[in-house]
Specification:
The chain folds into 3 domains: 173 residues, Alpha-Beta Plaits (2-Layer Sandwich), CATH 3.30.70.270; 57 residues, DNA polymerase, domain 1, CATH 1.10.150.20; 167 residues, Dna Ligase, domain 1 (2-Layer Sandwich). Helix 10 crosses helix 11. The protein is built from 15 helices and 14 strands. The chain is of the alpha+beta class and 414 residues long. It binds magnesium ion (MG). The site of magnesium ion (MG) has 4 residues, from strand 1. Keywords: DNA-directed DNA polymerase, Nucleotidyltransferase, Plasmid, Transferase. Monomer.
Protein backbone atom coordinates (compact mmCIF):
# COMPACT_ATOMS: atom_id res chain seq x y z
CA UNK A 1 0.00 0.00 0.00
CA UNK A 2 1.26 3.40 -1.01
CA UNK A 3 0.24 6.97 -0.29
CA UNK A 4 0.54 8.94 -3.54
CA UNK A 5 1.88 12.47 -3.26
CA UNK A 6 -0.18 13.74 -6.16
CA UNK A 7 -3.45 12.94 -7.92
CA UNK A 8 -3.23 9.72 -9.96
CA UNK A 9 -6.75 8.97 -11.14
CA UNK A 10 -9.65 10.63 -12.81
CA UNK A 11 -13.22 9.38 -12.63
CA UNK A 12 -15.66 10.50 -15.26
CA UNK A 13 -19.43 10.26 -15.04
CA UNK A 14 -21.78 11.41 -17.78
CA UNK A 15 -24.56 13.69 -16.56
CA UNK A 16 -28.04 12.17 -16.80
CA UNK A 17 -26.69 9.90 -19.51
CA UNK A 18 -29.81 8.36 -21.08
CA UNK A 19 -31.71 11.64 -20.99
CA UNK A 20 -28.87 13.71 -22.41
CA UNK A 21 -28.31 11.22 -25.24
CA UNK A 22 -31.99 11.68 -26.09
CA UNK A 23 -31.56 15.47 -26.02
CA UNK A 24 -28.52 15.22 -28.25
CA UNK A 25 -30.35 13.04 -30.78
CA UNK A 26 -33.77 14.76 -30.64
CA UNK A 27 -33.42 18.56 -30.72
CA UNK A 28 -37.02 19.08 -29.61
CA UNK A 29 -36.11 17.65 -26.18
CA UNK A 30 -33.27 20.10 -25.54
CA UNK A 31 -33.63 22.46 -22.60
CA UNK A 32 -36.77 20.65 -21.46
CA UNK A 33 -37.53 18.37 -18.52
CA UNK A 34 -37.25 14.88 -19.98
CA UNK A 35 -37.93 11.53 -18.34
CA UNK A 36 -36.85 8.29 -19.99
CA UNK A 37 -39.34 5.45 -19.38
CA UNK A 38 -39.16 1.74 -20.21
CA UNK A 39 -42.29 1.81 -22.41
CA UNK A 40 -44.52 4.47 -23.88
CA UNK A 41 -48.18 4.90 -23.10
CA UNK A 42 -48.53 3.91 -19.46
CA UNK A 43 -48.30 5.69 -16.13
CA UNK A 44 -47.77 2.46 -14.28
CA UNK A 45 -44.03 2.50 -14.70
CA UNK A 46 -41.00 4.46 -13.49
CA UNK A 47 -38.81 7.19 -14.90
CA UNK A 48 -35.47 5.41 -15.27
CA UNK A 49 -33.49 8.56 -16.01
CA UNK A 50 -34.26 12.25 -16.11
CA UNK A 51 -32.66 15.29 -17.68
CA UNK A 52 -31.00 18.02 -15.63
CA UNK A 53 -34.02 20.24 -16.27
CA UNK A 54 -36.27 17.57 -14.74
CA UNK A 55 -33.84 17.12 -11.84
CA UNK A 56 -33.89 20.86 -11.21
CA UNK A 57 -37.67 20.57 -10.73
CA UNK A 58 -37.28 17.80 -8.18
CA UNK A 59 -37.54 14.67 -10.31
CA UNK A 60 -35.20 11.80 -9.56
CA UNK A 61 -34.06 8.70 -11.39
CA UNK A 62 -36.21 5.66 -10.56
CA UNK A 63 -39.31 7.58 -9.63
CA UNK A 64 -42.90 6.53 -10.35
CA UNK A 65 -44.21 8.24 -13.47
CA UNK A 66 -47.25 9.36 -11.51
CA UNK A 67 -45.05 11.15 -8.94
CA UNK A 68 -42.83 12.68 -11.60
CA UNK A 69 -45.87 14.13 -13.39
CA UNK A 70 -47.16 15.57 -10.15
CA UNK A 71 -43.87 17.31 -9.35
CA UNK A 72 -43.27 18.39 -12.93
CA UNK A 73 -46.43 18.46 -15.06
CA UNK A 74 -44.51 19.57 -18.15
CA UNK A 75 -42.17 16.54 -18.11
CA UNK A 76 -41.73 14.93 -21.54
CA UNK A 77 -41.75 11.17 -21.25
CA UNK A 78 -39.82 9.28 -23.90
CA UNK A 79 -39.40 5.52 -24.25
CA UNK A 80 -35.84 4.26 -23.85
CA UNK A 81 -33.67 3.38 -26.86
CA UNK A 82 -30.93 1.05 -25.56
CA UNK A 83 -29.25 0.74 -28.92
CA UNK A 84 -28.77 4.49 -29.03
CA UNK A 85 -27.12 4.46 -25.58
CA UNK A 86 -24.80 1.68 -26.60
CA UNK A 87 -23.74 3.57 -29.70
CA UNK A 88 -23.28 6.80 -27.76
CA UNK A 89 -21.21 4.92 -25.15
CA UNK A 90 -18.91 3.56 -27.86
CA UNK A 91 -18.52 6.92 -29.57
CA UNK A 92 -17.80 8.75 -26.30
CA UNK A 93 -15.28 6.16 -25.15
CA UNK A 94 -13.49 6.26 -28.47
CA UNK A 95 -13.09 10.04 -28.19
CA UNK A 96 -11.87 9.90 -24.59
CA UNK A 97 -9.44 7.16 -25.50
CA UNK A 98 -7.76 9.45 -28.00
CA UNK A 99 -7.10 11.98 -25.21
CA UNK A 100 -6.19 9.55 -22.41
CA UNK A 101 -6.29 5.74 -22.23
CA UNK A 102 -9.30 4.47 -20.31
CA UNK A 103 -8.23 2.10 -17.54
CA UNK A 104 -11.63 0.69 -16.66
CA UNK A 105 -15.20 1.08 -17.80
CA UNK A 106 -17.33 1.03 -14.68
CA UNK A 107 -20.76 1.16 -16.29
CA UNK A 108 -22.43 2.51 -19.39
CA UNK A 109 -21.81 6.07 -18.18
CA UNK A 110 -18.82 5.88 -15.84
CA UNK A 111 -15.13 5.21 -16.35
CA UNK A 112 -11.73 5.77 -14.80
CA UNK A 113 -8.32 6.68 -16.21
CA UNK A 114 -4.92 6.45 -14.62
CA UNK A 115 -2.85 9.62 -14.97
CA UNK A 116 0.80 9.62 -15.74
CA UNK A 117 3.03 12.27 -14.18
CA UNK A 118 2.53 14.80 -16.94
CA UNK A 119 -1.22 14.37 -16.99
CA UNK A 120 -1.46 14.76 -13.22
CA UNK A 121 0.34 18.10 -13.36
CA UNK A 122 -2.49 19.90 -15.10
CA UNK A 123 -5.86 18.28 -14.41
CA UNK A 124 -7.85 21.41 -15.34
CA UNK A 125 -6.36 21.37 -18.80
CA UNK A 126 -6.89 17.60 -19.19
CA UNK A 127 -10.56 17.95 -18.19
CA UNK A 128 -10.99 20.82 -20.62
CA UNK A 129 -9.47 18.85 -23.50
CA UNK A 130 -11.72 15.84 -22.80
CA UNK A 131 -14.86 17.98 -22.53
CA UNK A 132 -14.03 20.00 -25.65
CA UNK A 133 -13.41 16.88 -27.64
CA UNK A 134 -16.67 15.23 -26.58
CA UNK A 135 -18.61 18.40 -27.37
CA UNK A 136 -16.99 18.77 -30.75
CA UNK A 137 -17.04 15.17 -31.98
CA UNK A 138 -20.06 13.64 -30.24
CA UNK A 139 -22.23 16.57 -29.24
CA UNK A 140 -22.50 19.42 -26.75
CA UNK A 141 -25.67 18.09 -25.11
CA UNK A 142 -23.94 15.10 -23.54
CA UNK A 143 -21.85 16.53 -20.72
CA UNK A 144 -19.80 14.86 -18.04
CA UNK A 145 -18.45 15.53 -14.59
CA UNK A 146 -14.87 14.66 -13.73
CA UNK A 147 -13.20 14.05 -10.39
CA UNK A 148 -9.45 13.86 -9.76
CA UNK A 149 -7.83 12.30 -6.69
CA UNK A 150 -5.06 10.03 -5.45
CA UNK A 151 -7.13 6.88 -5.94
CA UNK A 152 -10.25 5.79 -7.75
CA UNK A 153 -12.52 5.68 -4.74
CA UNK A 154 -11.80 9.32 -3.91
CA UNK A 155 -11.95 10.38 -7.57
CA UNK A 156 -15.39 8.79 -7.81
CA UNK A 157 -16.66 10.72 -4.79
CA UNK A 158 -15.07 13.93 -6.09
CA UNK A 159 -16.74 13.43 -9.44
CA UNK A 160 -20.22 13.68 -7.88
CA UNK A 161 -19.47 16.93 -6.05
CA UNK A 162 -20.05 19.34 -8.89
CA UNK A 163 -22.77 17.99 -11.19
CA UNK A 164 -23.58 18.62 -13.95
CA UNK A 165 -20.55 19.41 -16.10
CA UNK A 166 -18.15 19.98 -13.21
CA UNK A 167 -14.51 19.36 -12.44
CA UNK A 168 -13.41 18.59 -8.88
CA UNK A 169 -9.80 18.14 -7.88
CA UNK A 170 -8.91 16.69 -4.52
CA UNK A 171 -5.17 16.84 -4.03
CA UNK A 172 -3.76 14.51 -1.34
CA UNK A 173 -3.34 17.37 1.15
CA UNK A 174 -7.14 17.93 1.12
CA UNK A 175 -7.85 14.38 2.27
CA UNK A 176 -9.58 13.27 4.46
CA UNK A 177 -10.80 16.73 5.66
CA UNK A 178 -12.69 17.33 2.40
CA UNK A 179 -14.92 14.35 3.27
CA UNK A 180 -15.90 15.57 6.74
CA UNK A 181 -19.06 17.37 5.70
CA UNK A 182 -20.41 14.66 3.38
CA UNK A 183 -23.39 12.47 4.23
CA UNK A 184 -22.70 8.73 4.43
CA UNK A 185 -24.86 8.46 1.31
CA UNK A 186 -22.14 10.06 -0.80
CA UNK A 187 -19.56 7.40 0.07
CA UNK A 188 -19.51 4.26 -2.08
CA UNK A 189 -18.89 1.46 0.41
CA UNK A 190 -21.27 2.84 3.05
CA UNK A 191 -24.69 1.44 2.26
CA UNK A 192 -27.91 1.99 4.20
CA UNK A 193 -27.27 -0.99 6.42
CA UNK A 194 -23.75 0.17 7.30
CA UNK A 195 -24.98 3.73 7.90
CA UNK A 196 -27.45 2.32 10.44
CA UNK A 197 -24.71 0.32 12.09
CA UNK A 198 -22.55 3.46 12.30
CA UNK A 199 -25.33 5.46 13.92
CA UNK A 200 -25.84 2.64 16.43
CA UNK A 201 -22.14 2.83 17.25
CA UNK A 202 -22.54 6.56 17.92
CA UNK A 203 -20.81 7.67 14.73
CA UNK A 204 -23.05 10.21 13.04
CA UNK A 205 -20.74 11.93 10.59
CA UNK A 206 -17.75 11.41 8.33
CA UNK A 207 -15.46 13.53 10.49
CA UNK A 208 -15.86 11.19 13.42
CA UNK A 209 -15.51 8.14 11.18
CA UNK A 210 -12.35 9.45 9.52
CA UNK A 211 -10.74 10.31 12.85
CA UNK A 212 -11.11 6.75 14.10
CA UNK A 213 -8.20 4.34 13.74
CA UNK A 214 -8.42 2.04 10.72
CA UNK A 215 -8.79 -1.02 12.95
CA UNK A 216 -12.01 0.37 14.41
CA UNK A 217 -13.57 0.54 11.00
CA UNK A 218 -12.63 -3.06 10.48
CA UNK A 219 -14.43 -3.90 13.73
CA UNK A 220 -17.60 -2.03 12.80
CA UNK A 221 -17.64 -3.53 9.32
CA UNK A 222 -16.81 -6.96 10.76
CA UNK A 223 -14.51 -7.45 7.80
CA UNK A 224 -11.30 -6.24 6.28
CA UNK A 225 -13.38 -4.15 3.87
CA UNK A 226 -13.90 -1.58 6.60
CA UNK A 227 -10.18 -1.17 7.05
CA UNK A 228 -9.63 -1.01 3.29
CA UNK A 229 -12.22 1.72 2.98
CA UNK A 230 -10.47 3.69 5.73
CA UNK A 231 -7.20 3.58 3.79
CA UNK A 232 -8.89 4.45 0.51
CA UNK A 233 -10.62 7.45 2.08
CA UNK A 234 -7.32 8.57 3.57
CA UNK A 235 -5.73 8.64 0.15
CA UNK A 236 -3.87 5.35 0.01
CA UNK A 237 -3.61 3.42 -3.23
CA UNK A 238 -4.12 -0.33 -3.41
CA UNK A 239 -3.11 -2.72 -6.08
CA UNK A 240 -6.10 -2.71 -8.40
CA UNK A 241 -8.20 -5.81 -8.01
CA UNK A 242 -10.86 -5.46 -10.63
CA UNK A 243 -11.12 -6.52 -14.21
CA UNK A 244 -11.79 -4.12 -17.02
CA UNK A 245 -14.89 -4.52 -19.09
CA UNK A 246 -15.68 -3.84 -22.65
CA UNK A 247 -12.16 -3.49 -23.99
CA UNK A 248 -8.72 -5.03 -24.23
CA UNK A 249 -5.77 -2.70 -23.98
CA UNK A 250 -2.15 -2.48 -23.03
CA UNK A 251 0.16 0.44 -22.42
CA UNK A 252 3.78 1.03 -21.70
CA UNK A 253 6.08 3.83 -20.64
CA UNK A 254 9.02 3.69 -23.01
CA UNK A 255 12.61 3.41 -21.79
CA UNK A 256 14.71 6.52 -22.63
CA UNK A 257 16.63 4.80 -25.46
CA UNK A 258 13.41 3.71 -27.22
CA UNK A 259 11.55 6.98 -27.42
CA UNK A 260 11.85 7.46 -31.18
CA UNK A 261 8.89 6.73 -33.46
CA UNK A 262 10.18 3.48 -35.03
CA UNK A 263 10.91 1.91 -31.61
CA UNK A 264 7.57 3.11 -30.29
CA UNK A 265 5.83 1.53 -33.25
CA UNK A 266 7.55 -1.78 -32.62
CA UNK A 267 6.33 -1.69 -29.02
CA UNK A 268 2.82 -0.71 -30.10
CA UNK A 269 2.72 -3.79 -32.32
CA UNK A 270 3.84 -6.05 -29.48
CA UNK A 271 1.30 -4.58 -27.09
CA UNK A 272 -1.44 -4.91 -29.65
CA UNK A 273 -0.69 -8.55 -30.32
CA UNK A 274 -0.89 -9.19 -26.60
CA UNK A 275 -4.24 -7.44 -26.44
CA UNK A 276 -5.50 -9.35 -29.50
CA UNK A 277 -4.46 -12.61 -27.91
CA UNK A 278 -6.44 -11.81 -24.79
CA UNK A 279 -9.38 -10.80 -26.96
CA UNK A 280 -9.35 -14.17 -28.69
CA UNK A 281 -8.89 -16.07 -25.45
CA UNK A 282 -12.03 -14.41 -24.11
CA UNK A 283 -13.74 -15.27 -27.42
CA UNK A 284 -14.45 -11.72 -28.48
CA UNK A 285 -14.20 -9.75 -31.69
CA UNK A 286 -13.40 -6.04 -31.77
CA UNK A 287 -14.58 -3.37 -34.15
CA UNK A 288 -12.48 -0.42 -33.00
CA UNK A 289 -8.83 0.19 -32.42
CA UNK A 290 -7.43 3.15 -30.51
CA UNK A 291 -3.82 4.18 -30.68
CA UNK A 292 -2.63 6.72 -28.15
CA UNK A 293 0.84 8.24 -27.77
CA UNK A 294 2.22 10.61 -25.17
CA UNK A 295 4.63 12.85 -27.03
CA UNK A 296 6.52 16.10 -26.41
CA UNK A 297 4.03 18.66 -25.24
CA UNK A 298 0.91 16.54 -25.48
CA UNK A 299 -0.55 13.49 -27.10
CA UNK A 300 -1.44 12.06 -30.48
CA UNK A 301 -3.99 9.40 -31.18
CA UNK A 302 -6.25 7.80 -33.73
CA UNK A 303 -9.44 5.83 -33.65
CA UNK A 304 -9.84 3.26 -36.44
CA UNK A 305 -13.01 1.36 -37.25
CA UNK A 306 -12.75 -2.29 -38.17
CA UNK A 307 -15.21 -4.90 -39.28
CA UNK A 308 -15.67 -7.31 -36.34
CA UNK A 309 -12.28 -9.05 -36.31
CA UNK A 310 -9.87 -10.78 -33.96
CA UNK A 311 -7.01 -11.98 -36.16
CA UNK A 312 -3.56 -10.43 -35.97
CA UNK A 313 -3.47 -9.50 -39.64
CA UNK A 314 -6.57 -7.31 -39.58
CA UNK A 315 -5.67 -5.76 -36.26
CA UNK A 316 -2.03 -5.02 -37.15
CA UNK A 317 -3.11 -3.56 -40.49
CA UNK A 318 -5.42 -1.22 -38.60
CA UNK A 319 -2.54 -0.24 -36.33
CA UNK A 320 -0.39 0.59 -39.37
CA UNK A 321 -3.13 2.86 -40.63
CA UNK A 322 -3.64 4.48 -37.24
CA UNK A 323 0.09 4.93 -36.89
CA UNK A 324 0.50 6.55 -40.29
CA UNK A 325 -2.35 8.96 -39.66
CA UNK A 326 -1.34 9.81 -36.11
CA UNK A 327 2.31 10.45 -36.87
CA UNK A 328 2.07 11.94 -40.38
CA UNK A 329 2.72 15.49 -39.26
CA UNK A 330 4.74 14.87 -36.14
CA UNK A 331 8.30 15.12 -37.44
CA UNK A 332 10.96 14.06 -34.97
CA UNK A 333 9.29 13.79 -31.59
CA UNK A 334 9.95 11.84 -28.48
CA UNK A 335 7.33 9.28 -27.52
CA UNK A 336 7.03 8.75 -23.79
CA UNK A 337 4.19 6.31 -23.55
CA UNK A 338 2.16 4.22 -25.95
CA UNK A 339 -1.21 2.65 -25.41
CA UNK A 340 -3.34 0.48 -27.69
CA UNK A 341 -6.91 -0.57 -27.05
CA UNK A 342 -9.32 -2.87 -28.83
CA UNK A 343 -12.92 -1.98 -28.11
CA UNK A 344 -16.51 -2.12 -29.32
CA UNK A 345 -16.26 -5.81 -28.64
CA UNK A 346 -18.76 -8.52 -29.32
CA UNK A 347 -18.83 -12.19 -28.34
CA UNK A 348 -17.78 -14.63 -31.03
CA UNK A 349 -21.07 -16.45 -30.59
CA UNK A 350 -23.05 -13.26 -31.28
CA UNK A 351 -20.99 -12.07 -34.20
CA UNK A 352 -22.54 -14.33 -36.78
CA UNK A 353 -25.83 -12.57 -36.22
CA UNK A 354 -24.40 -9.23 -37.08
CA UNK A 355 -25.62 -8.14 -40.46
CA UNK A 356 -22.80 -5.88 -41.42
CA UNK A 357 -20.11 -8.52 -41.17
CA UNK A 358 -19.13 -9.75 -44.57
CA UNK A 359 -16.82 -12.66 -44.04
CA UNK A 360 -14.57 -12.90 -47.01
CA UNK A 361 -12.29 -15.85 -47.63
CA UNK A 362 -9.18 -13.91 -46.65
CA UNK A 363 -10.53 -13.09 -43.22
CA UNK A 364 -11.28 -16.74 -42.53
CA UNK A 365 -7.80 -17.71 -43.62
CA UNK A 366 -6.14 -15.16 -41.34
CA UNK A 367 -8.29 -16.30 -38.45
CA UNK A 368 -7.13 -19.85 -39.04
CA UNK A 369 -3.47 -18.78 -39.16
CA UNK A 370 -3.85 -16.73 -35.99
CA UNK A 371 -5.65 -19.57 -34.21
CA UNK A 372 -2.88 -22.00 -35.10
CA UNK A 373 -0.13 -19.72 -33.84
CA UNK A 374 -2.00 -19.05 -30.57
CA UNK A 375 -2.25 -22.79 -30.11
CA UNK A 376 1.50 -23.31 -30.63
CA UNK A 377 2.45 -20.45 -28.32
CA UNK A 378 0.18 -21.78 -25.59
CA UNK A 379 1.56 -25.25 -26.00
CA UNK A 380 5.19 -24.20 -25.69
CA UNK A 381 4.59 -21.49 -23.08
CA UNK A 382 6.29 -18.72 -25.01
CA UNK A 383 6.03 -16.81 -28.23
CA UNK A 384 7.44 -19.04 -30.93
CA UNK A 385 5.18 -18.03 -33.78
CA UNK A 386 4.07 -14.50 -34.50
CA UNK A 387 3.00 -12.23 -37.27
CA UNK A 388 6.03 -10.14 -38.18
CA UNK A 389 8.97 -9.52 -35.92
CA UNK A 390 8.63 -10.34 -32.24
CA UNK A 391 11.21 -8.25 -30.46
CA UNK A 392 10.39 -7.65 -26.81
CA UNK A 393 11.56 -4.25 -25.55
CA UNK A 394 14.12 -3.80 -22.81
CA UNK A 395 12.62 -4.30 -19.39
CA UNK A 396 10.98 -7.58 -20.15
CA UNK A 397 7.35 -8.58 -20.52
CA UNK A 398 5.23 -6.59 -22.87
CA UNK A 399 1.71 -7.04 -21.70
CA UNK A 400 1.88 -7.84 -18.07
CA UNK A 401 3.99 -4.88 -17.06
CA UNK A 402 1.48 -2.08 -17.15
CA UNK A 403 -1.81 -3.51 -16.18
CA UNK A 404 -3.62 -0.95 -14.14
CA UNK A 405 -6.83 -2.74 -13.56
CA UNK A 406 -6.43 -6.32 -14.46
CA UNK A 407 -5.11 -9.40 -12.78
CA UNK A 408 -2.75 -10.78 -15.41
CA UNK A 409 -3.07 -14.44 -16.19
CA UNK A 410 -0.17 -16.71 -16.97
CA UNK A 411 -0.72 -16.47 -20.71
CA UNK A 412 -0.06 -12.73 -20.63
CA UNK A 413 3.58 -13.43 -19.94
CA UNK A 414 4.07 -15.48 -23.10
MG1 LIG B 1 -24.16 9.37 -14.79
Amino acid sequence: MRKPENIEWLYLDFDGFFASVMQQVYPKLRGKPVGVVPFAGTDRTVVIACSKEAKARGCKNIMAVRDAKQICPSILLVPQEPDLYRRAHNALLAEINTVIPISAIKSIDELTCWLDKRQSENPHELARVIKDRLAKYVGPHITCSIGFAANRQLAKIACKMDKPNGVTIWTPDMVPEVLFGLPFDDIPGIGDRMARRLHMAGIHDMEKLMKMPAKHMRKIWRSVNGERLWYALHGYEFQAQETERGMFGHGRVLPPEERDLPSAKNIARLLLRKAARRLRRAEYYASSLILWLAIDGGSAGRHIRLPYVNDDKAILDALDLAWTEATARLGRVKVYRVHVTLLDITLASKRQLDLFVSDDKDRKRWEAVTGASDHLNMKYGKTIVSMGEWKPPKGGHVGAKISFTRIPSAEDFL
